[in-house]
């Protein structure tokens, strides 16, 4: 019998491991590592819940945290300074009180710790501009939240039902959406504003205006949610839920909706920031909030003639409009990144730390 050497079999390994590899046995550098499961993430390794993961990802977003702090300061300043719902505030003046003009109505604030009697100045008839701006910020924030909650709820429900059920429910809901889209929002809001001012007191203006705008501004969100549901309803986890006997309501709200939360949050926050701009525009042209109540748009409209001689009458309400819109948009981006499992934030520091063991 002819003895064959291992060199006669070039494609066969020259050694066979029959036992465990000890620590002192170094594998060949050219050997290809065996395929294995993907590495476990830090969150999975630590056994964090979904809420803890969302909270950690949100707090990792610097812009969202700064915006949240700024918006919280604006919110507390507006609702505690001049009071709300019959609860008195800590500021000594209100937005309807007429006072003697001091220093031509110029702002008396010199530093964050030295405000003076009228930190934002006074208007041409002596009203405290800080109290007016805070009252206007209150109304704008209330309208923003009413529109965001109502339009978000209606848009999500209609978009989810039309995207999941298809057939005649989709046809009916989308044709209804098309009808609402063609409604001229500014003209309809102006007509409603005139009717409200004639038959309803000033205290109900902001609530009715927010309700109306919320009932007509949900169409864009509904279409986006429908498109997201059309994609997600074909995924494997939806088929598994159907096989398991889950109801349609449970599949929509427990399985598909959490995967579409990124689109919903971003577009709802954009809707809320645009709602402030729409309310400001309506009040500026005289069809939104009206005297004796105030809003940021109405304050700018009432003092537009004094812009050249007293520009601070435009600075402060304009600054609060810009800050609120920016804060809401950045907070929405942070929530989208936190809730959406498909969003992965690249961290250069962690990438370098991961490369060091590989290089060693």
TrEMBL record:
Keyword terms of this UniProt record: Cell inner membrane, Cell membrane, Membrane, Peptide transport, Protein transport, Transmembrane, Transmembrane helix, Transport
Biased composition (Polar residues): 1-18
Pfam families: BPD_transp_1 (PF00528), OppC_N (PF12911)
PROSITE patterns hit by this protein: ABC_TM1
CDD domains in the record: TM_PBP2 (cd06261)
Main localisation: membrane
Keyword Nucleus: no
Residues making up the signal peptide according to the UniProt record: none
Residue segments, region Disordered: 1-47
Subcellular location: Cell inner membrane; Cell membrane
Top-level taxon of origin: Bacteria
Membrane-crossing residue ranges in chain numbering: 65-91, 141-165, 172-192, 204-225, 256-278, 312-332
Membrane topology: Multi-pass membrane protein
Keyword Lyase recorded: no
Occurrences of domain ABC transmembrane type-1 (ranges): 137-332
Family: Belongs to the binding-protein-dependent transport system permease family. OppBC subfamily.
Name of this chain's protein: Oligopeptide transport system permease protein OppC
Originating organism: Arthrobacter burdickii
């Amino acid at each position: 019998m002819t003895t064959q050497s291992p060199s006669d079999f070039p494609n066969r390994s020259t050694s066979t491991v029959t036992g465990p590899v000890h620590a002192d046995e170094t594998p060949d550098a050219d050997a290809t590592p065996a395929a294995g499961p993907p590495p476990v993430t830090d969150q999975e390794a630590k056994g964090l819940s979904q809420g803890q993961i969302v909270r950690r990802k949100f707090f990792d977003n610097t812009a969202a945290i700064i915006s949240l702090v700024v918006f919280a300061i604006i919110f507390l300043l507006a609702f505690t300074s001049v009071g709300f719902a019959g609860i008195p505030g800590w500021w000594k003046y209100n937005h309807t009180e007429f006072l003697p003009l001091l220093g031509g109505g110029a702002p008396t604030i010199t530093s964050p710790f030295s405000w003076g009697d009228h930190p934002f100045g006074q208007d041409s008839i002596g009203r405290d501009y800080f109290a007016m701006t805070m009252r206007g910020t209150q109304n704008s924030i209330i309208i923003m939240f009413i529109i965001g909650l109502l339009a978000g709820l209606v848009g999500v429900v209609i978009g989810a039902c039309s995207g999941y059920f298809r057939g005649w429910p989709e046809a009916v809901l989308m044709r209804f959406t098309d009808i609402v889209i063609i409604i001229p929002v500014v003209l309809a809001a102006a007509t409603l504003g005139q009717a409200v001012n004639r038959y309803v007191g000033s205290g109900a203006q902001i609530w009715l205006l927010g309700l109306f705008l919320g009932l007509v501004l949900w169409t864009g969100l509904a279409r986006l949610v429908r498109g997201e549901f059309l994609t997600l309803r074909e995924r494997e986890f939806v088929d598994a839920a159907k096989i398991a006997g889950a109801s349609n309501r449970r599949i929509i709200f427990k399985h598909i909706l959490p995967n579409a939360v990124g689109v919903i949050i971003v577009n709802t926050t954009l809707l809320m920031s645009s709602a402030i701009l729409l309310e400001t525009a309506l009040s500026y042209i005289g069809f939104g909030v009206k005297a004796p109540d105030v809003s940021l748009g109405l304050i700018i409209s009432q003092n537009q003639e004094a812009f050249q001689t007293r520009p601070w009458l435009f600075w402060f309400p304009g600054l609060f409009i810009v800050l609120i819109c920016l804060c809401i948009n950045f907070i929405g981006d942070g929530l989208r990144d936190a809730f959406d499992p498909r969003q992965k934030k690249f961290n250069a520091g962690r990438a370098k730390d991961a490369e060091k063991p590989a290089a060693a």
